[in-house]
Amino acid sequence: MGGVDVMLRVFHPNLPINPGLIEYQLSIQKGLPQDMIANVLNLLPGTLSVELEDDLLYIHVLDIENDIKKEVQTIENYLNNIFCEGKEQ
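The structure corresponding to this sequence follows.
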């Protein structure tokens, strides 16, 4: 769905985009887990991880009105489960 949304925006005569940077406070552990979430977000249509500084991730999005933080939180929860699963055993 994201790819279709980006395509429709780009080919629309009025180019209905509202680009900008959002800040997302990461709660996942530093190191590989934070690097992984930054790279996974680059795979989502319309998003690009710009900078990771301490626990703050800056993300460029095509439309700042979309609820991207909810999507990032979902991905962060999945990755947190993956990285924490091995530690419990």
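The helical segments are 2-11, 32-41, 68-88.
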